[in-house]
Amino acid sequence: MNKNKKLTKLKKIFSILVLVPALLIPSIASATVTAPIVTEIKAESIKSEENQNTLNKKIKEAHEIKSKKDSLSETKSPIFSPWATKDLNEAQFMGLYPAKGFFNERDFTKPATLEDANTCYKLSKKKIEERGIETAGNFTFKKLTREEILNSISKLLKDEKFEIKNLKKAKIFLGSEDEGYLNSKISLEEMISLYSRAVNKVLQDNDKVSRGFFYEVNNKENKIYMLGSIHLGNTSLYPIDKNILNALKSSDKIFMEIDLSKKDEAKKMREKIYYNDGKTLRDDLGAELYLRVLNLFKSFGMEEADIKTLKPWAVYNTLSIDPSGETARASFGIESYFMSLSLLNKIEIGELESMEYQSNILANFDNTSYIKMIEALTSEIEKNGYKNINLGLDNLLDAWQSGDKSKMKSILSAESDEESKKFNEALLSERDKGMAKKIDAMLKKDGKNTYFILVGSAHLVPENSVTGILKDMGYNVIEK
């Protein structure tokens, strides 16, 4: 099957990835926690081997993983200085330091180790070279002083001559040039911050950044920026074009589909994923399909007790995403990143919809259609694992990173079966109208206001989406 046919076959799965907030997707068993430190949205994953021969082997391995689950609940936040928060956050999203290092009370104010320095340099070098930019090669660390780290960064940037003044001019190094200060041991947080600033600068300067799907619309003295997101992501999406980030920083308020910081409300909404009337998943799926689905969930490290009262819509949403998180995960999605930036920059957060509204859309969709989609999805996973699903996700991430609207439109407009068409219609049509109406009201407000809108890409990229509705209202929607 060629790539285009695979994309068509998996159209129903893409709708989940670009339309449904990952917050509403049930959590599954996990072995490692690798979430960005500011948002505290914890990604959960299990490690699996490729080319496993039998489902029983997968189930056995998953149960071994599950035995580690209790220890995760004891994971504690790291220790770092307030000044380093933004740089550490950027470093984690860019993948410049192992995500697991941000947990278990790691003290980032302590001196960096040789392993820390080698790891940070290697990951920073890889990040730059993957974007087609040459570095000056490897670096040998000996003293782990500020000056040595700055020297390594100069080599990373392929400077002809190491001069601290150049790094200060580039706003990579902000400290003193005093000899004693430069020759003292560097802390882990300062070292990571220096690499974070350096990598960000070189990629921004060389236009090797993610573009996303970015728009602007104005009326009177009001300005609205709109960015289409993908609810799952990985480190390849970062850094994001500084023009988008500057637009956020200039905004009075950011509006997301839902406010991800309302954790108590999120907990309440998740209760809707379970039957509460004595009914079970087996009753809806039937004995044969239920057993197949159960075996898949067991391979994720779950017991029957964990899923027997899940509703079909929760099952479908969960199965749609590779539990290993190797391709992408919610904690590295665009919402998670912009949530962290908004919190760090003290930008007010609002929502265009609500968790209850979105969960009701998912829960109220035709149950018969869900069951048909679950059967098709189960067959795909049984036959190919998440290989084809992740291939589709890679295509989405590539389209977002390059800002390729044509590619995204092609993915979203691929032919699909009747159930998928109804599902996409339920997720899009009325919601687009509601979002456009609220944006129209913002544009008509008195005074001078600047807002930043962050919604799923499928709400902005297609011609008949929010952007199209705003155009029909008479607005000039500028593609950035």
Automatic annotation (TrEMBL):
UniProt source species: Peptoniphilus porci
Protein name: Polysaccharide biosynthesis protein GumN
Transmembrane annotation, as ranges: none
Pfam families xrefs: TraB_PrgY_gumN (PF01963)
RNA-binding listed as a keyword: no
Matches recorded under InterPro entries: TraB/PrgY/GumN_fam, YbaP-like
Signal peptide: 1-31
Keywords, comma-separated and alphabetical: Signal
